[in-house]
Amino acid sequence: MDEKALRRAAELALEFRRGLADRPVGAQTDRASLHATLGGPLPQAGTDATEVIEQLAAAADPGLIGMPGPRYFGFVIGGSLPASVGADWLTSAWDQNAGIFAAGPAASVVEEVAAAWLLELLDLPTTASVGFVTGAQMANFTCLASARHAVLARAGWNVEANGLTGAPEVTVVIGEEAHATILTALGYLGLGRERNMRIPADEQGRMRVDQLEAALERVDGPLIVCLQAGNVNTGAFDDAVRAMEAVRRHPNAWIHVDGAFGLWARVSAHFAPVAAGLESADSWAVDGHKWLNVPYDSGYAIVADPAAHVAALAPAAGAYIQYAAVERDPFNFVPEYSRRARGFATYAAIRELGREGIAAMIERCCTLASRMADRLRAVEGIEILNDVVLNQALVRFRPSAGGNIDAHTRDIVSRIQADGTAWLGATTWHGMAAMRISVSNWSTSEANADRAVDIILRCAADA
Ligand SMILES: *Cc1c(COP(=O)(O)O)cnc(C)c1O
Question: Is there a smaller number of Cβ atoms within 10 Å at the N or the C end of the chain?
Fold first, then answer.
């Protein structure tokens, strides 16, 4: 066995991670240059494994983003905890098929253990089932597939067997600010990206519950309502307690919560009140690779009714499969058949920090987001557009000499990205250009946050 290639890969990985504190956060190259170094004709003969690893690392490096580093504030990204990265390496080395217990007993059991820990951390019903998926996109899909199953089964229709053709109409209600992945999931499920009732949002991006209440008066029959815990721009939460009270008046309703990052607020005693009441929903989508700081390829589809979850997701029978008697066959809870043993990385992240460490990380991120927003707000011409209730802030820059605020704001974001000390992205919020700040990395310290604000202010002064 050639151990050399794997040792070299580990060294190169460590070099990259050691460099994260200092390397430019953004990409240092473009598509054409990456094609020049990575491209070429299909290899006819093989190459020594160590050489493949070294060349790959060298060629990819300029196109790598300092995303797991401490000054990446774009999107809602999260970092990757050391134990979690290590467990992810082992997952590749062990190369287990986590589809069925018979193909990966440790992979199956670690999912059972991590699932129970996740439910306790997030304060969700301990009887809920958890599918380990690629991210919140597939978590939303999996949860909504379970919802589709349950509301149609109650209406006397077996959607897995018979499809949607001829099925009773399902009313889907979403907020105007629902994440794009909810729409995509509804499209995959045949419920339609546009065939839904859209409830207007308020100035923070929260569903207008008064409008939900009015809309529900016109609804009859199978109903799926999607709530949001953590708006991707503002961090705001829908008023779940009041929304659920209205939805529960319907006898055949399912409430789904997209809590990709926001659901983690429930781990912190300080921030849990913003996410109050969500434990009474029917399903929850949450990411591991965002705020839990598990490396990419980690999300959780959590369903209060395991029977609905399995009925919707368990694969069609295969004669050659060795099904578990009492053990967990992980493929019953996810859209895939064969797959990576994702549970190990989640297990390691939770063990590394423990409940107290996770709560502290969540609170630190929120405190730093507020600190950054406060410093920026104090400067003439800089405005914070949202109530900073969690880890997200929206910033707008007004040119001192007058002129176009949108263009000025976008110019400053470009300057910050070109500088490379920190990475922040742009968005449009209620028709206004804005810079987004998302703090969701375990390694972001106060010094990193301050250094980022210094650069933001310098770029703003130069613009
Ligand atoms: C990030 C996000 C998603 C999508 O999650 P992925 O992990 O990228 O699939 C869905 N909903 C919300 C609210 C998000 O923030």
Answer: N
pLDDT of 423 above 70: yes
Question: Where in 134-175 does DSSP place strands (E)?
Answer: 171-175
Residue 378 has phi, psi (to 5 degrees) of -70, -10
What are the structure tokens assigned to 272, written together? 């849990």
Q: Could you tell me the distance, in angstroms and rounded to a whole number, from the CA of residue 347 to the centre of ligand 1?
A: 21
Cβ of 136 closer than 6 Å to ligand 1, yes or no, is: yes
* Tokens describing residue 141: 């899909």
Per DSSP, 234 falls in state T
Q: 76 CB less than 6 Å from ligand 1?
A: yes
Distance from the alpha carbon of residue 387 to the mean position of ligand 1, in angstroms = 21
Written as one letter, the residue type at 294 is V
Ligand 1 atom having least distance to the Cα of 229 = 13
Determine the topology of domain 86-350 in CATH: Aspartate Aminotransferase; domain 2 (3.40.640)
The predicted-structure confidence for 284-293, as pLDDT tens digits, reads as follows: 999 999 999 9
The model's pTM is 0.98
Q: How far apart are CA 279 and CA 263, in angstroms?
A: 10
